[in-house]
Amino acid sequence: MMMAGLLSCGESKYETGSFQVIPLPQEITETTGAQPFIVRPSTTICYPEGNEKMERTARFLAGYIREVTGTQVKVGTRAGSNCIQLSLDATLSHPESYELTVTKDGVQLKGATEAAVFLGTQTLYKALPITEGNALGALPAGTVKDEPRFAYRGFMIDVGRHFFSVDYLKELIDVMALHNINHFHWHLTEDQGWRIEIKKYPKLTEIGATRKETITAPGANEYDGTPVSGFYTQEEAREIVRYAADRFITVIPEIDLPGHMMAALASYPELGCTGGPYEIPTRFGVFDEVLCGGNGQTLQFAKDVLNEIMDIFPSPYIHIGGDECPKVRWEKCPTCQAKIRELGLKSTRDHSKENQLQVWFMSEVEKEINARGRKMMGWDEILEGNPEPSVTVMAWTSPKASILSAQLGHPTIVTPIHYLYFSNPWINRIMGEASVERVYNFEPVADTLTLDQRKNIIGAQGCIWTEWTKDSVKMEWQMMPRIDALSELQWTQPDKKDFRQFLQRLQHQLKLYELKGWNYKSLNEADSLKYKQFKNMPL
After folding, report:
1. Residue 239 phi, psi (nearest 5)
2. pLDDT of residue 524
3. What does the mean pLDDT of the chain come to?
4. Which end of the chain is more exposed for a tag (fewer CB within 10 A), N or C?
5. pLDDT at position 431, please?
6. 251: how many CB neighbours lie within 10 A of its CB?
7. In 207-352, where does DSSP find H-type helix?
C-alpha cells in the first residue's frame, strides 16, 4: 500500500512504498505509527571503502531510485544521518541472507555477502513508490529479514532457434535480477543454429549460424523465406558473463549434444554417422541425424568445443544437453556398433546398448569437464543410462523425472514442461489469472521424497524456447508476469505463499514493467484477445 504525506512548509510531498514486494521476503515487521525514511536529493548511499562490488551495487541502487522517484541521490563511503548504509555481516546464517532496518533517519542494509546486499537492494527498488518526480519516495519504518528457499534460481533462454542481440540479453538479465534469479542458463546451440564462436571450428558460425528460412506455424507446410542468422563472438559472450556477474548472476552455457546438432553437422559432415550432406533444418522437432557416438573424431570435437566454452564461462556448471537423441543412425552405423563391441556394451531390460553408448560418450565428456574443476549438467534423459551421482540433472519431462533424479541422489533442478516452460504453445492458450496460478501453485519438492532426498532438489527454473519467439514483444509476453510467480516459487517459503495476496502485490510490479517499457501478458480475460494480434504468434 502506498501512503502519501507532506513535509514541512515549502517542501515537496512524498509517497511511502511497501515491503510487500515480489518475491515476498520471509519476515517483514512494520513499525506502526513511525515516520518513514524519505529519500531526498541530500540522501547518500554509503558503502564500505575499497569494496568495488559494494560500490557498484550502491551505484545500481542510486540508478533504481532515480528511475522510480526521479530523485538523484549521492553515493559515498562516509556514513551518517540521512544515509542508506550498505554493509557486510558475517553472522548472518545464509550466504544470501540480508536484513533491512528502516527508521526516519536512515536505512541499514546488511548482507552476509556482497550478493546478499545486492538482493537487498532489489527489495528496496521494488519497495519504493513510482512517483517519477511528482513526489519524493519514502520507505516504511520497520525491518525485513530475508533469505532464499533455494540456492539455485534459474531462467533459460534459447538463442538457437532465434537469435537475440547482446543488448537485449542484457535487458533480460536485468529482468532476472529484478526477480532475484541468480542463474542465466544460456542455450547456445541447436539443430536450427549454432550461436557461439569456436575458434578451432570456424565453420560452426560461418555455416552453422544461418538457416535459409523458418516454418510459419506448428503443423504448417509453409515457410517464411526469411533467413535467420547471428552468433556471439567469444568477447561478446564474455561481455554477457561480466554484465551478469555484476548483478550476481551466473551464466551457465549449454552446448546440447549428441542430439540437436544438425547445425554442427551441416558445418562438419564428418561428425555424423552417414557423412551427410546435412542441411540446417527450417522446421522444429527431433531429428534422427546426431553426432556419431562411436567416432573418436566426434568425441574430440566435443572436448575441444567444451574446452573453449570453459575458457569463456567461469560457471561451475557446464550444461551438455543429452536430451532427445534418437539412436536410429547409431543402430545401423558400423562405427557406433564397433565401439559398442569394443566397450562390451550389452542391451538390458532398461537400457539399450546404444543408450549405454551415449552414457559412455557423456562420461568421457564429463571427465573433460571435471578435469577443469567444473560440474556437468544435463537434461533428465541422461538418467536413461545411470550417470554418476555427481551429474546435476535438469528435470524437464515431468515432475516424476525430478522425483526419480532426487531418489537416485543427483542434485536436481526442477523445470517441468507443463508448468515452467513459458513458451509451451498449448499452455500459452491458458489466459487470465489461471496462466499465472498454475506456475505459482506448482510445488517443486514432491511429498513422496524422503527428507534426505528432498535435499537433492537444489532449485527450480523457468525456460523459454524460441521456436515461435522471434522478437522482444513475444519474449516478454511469455515471460511476464509468470516470472513473478516463478520467483516466488524459487524464493519464498511455501507457508508464506498466498495466490490472492500475490495478485495484489503484483499490481505494483506491473506498473514497474510499464515504467521500463516491458511487454507483459494481461491477466484480464477480456484483454486477452488483443495479444493474438501480436506478430509471430501462434501462441
Report:
1. -65, -40
2. 83
3. 94
4. N
5. 87
6. 23
7. 234-246, 262-267, 296-312, 328-332, 334-343
Q: Dihedral through CA 118, CA 121, CA 123, CA 125, nearest 10?
A: -130
pLDDT-based confidence at residue 9 (cuts at 50, 70, 90): very low
159-209: pLDDT as tens digits: 999 999 999 999 999 999 999 999 999 999 999 999 999 999 999 999 999
Which DSSP helix (H) or strand (E) runs through 68? helix 52-69
What is the number of residues in the chain? 539
Rounded to 5°, the CA angle 355-276-221 comes to 90
Q: At what angle do helices 114-127 and 52-69 cross, to 10 degrees?
A: 10
pTM of the predicted model as reported, rounded to 2 decimal places: 0.96
The answer to whether residues 117 and 109 touch, using CB atoms and an 8 Å cutoff, is yes
Q: Would you give the DSSP letter of residue 180?
A: T
Euclidean distance between CA atoms 193 and 280, whole angstroms: 7
Which string of DSSP letters, residue by residue, matches 412-430?
EEE--HHHHBTT-TTGGG-
- Give the Cβ contact number of residue 449 at 10 Å: 17
Categorize the per-residue pLDDT at 6 as very low, low, confident or very high, splitting at 50, 70 and 90: low
Distance CA 369, CA 513 (A): 39
In our burial notation (b when 16+ CB lie closer than 10 A, e otherwise), range 418-443 reads: ebbbbbbeebbeebebebbbbbbebe
User: What's the confidence (pLDDT) of residue 525?
Assistant: 65
The radius of gyration computed from the CA coordinates of the chain, to the nearest angstrom, equals 25
Omega before residue 140 within 30° of 0, cis: no
Q: How far apart are the first and last CA of the chain?
A: 35
CA–chain centroid gap for 387, Å, is 25
* Cβ 198 vs Cβ 206: under 8 Å: no
Q: Residues 233-239: what's their mean pLDDT?
A: 98
d(CA 453, CA 2): 43
Residue 102 bridge partners (DSSP): 107, 142
Cell of 418: 507443463
At 526, the pLDDT band (50, 70, 90 cuts) reads low
What are 189's three cell numbers? 546451440
User: Which residues lie across from 184 on neighbouring strands?
Assistant: 155, 251
Distance of CA 7 to the CA centre of its chain: 42
Query: H/E element holding 107?
Result: strand 106-111
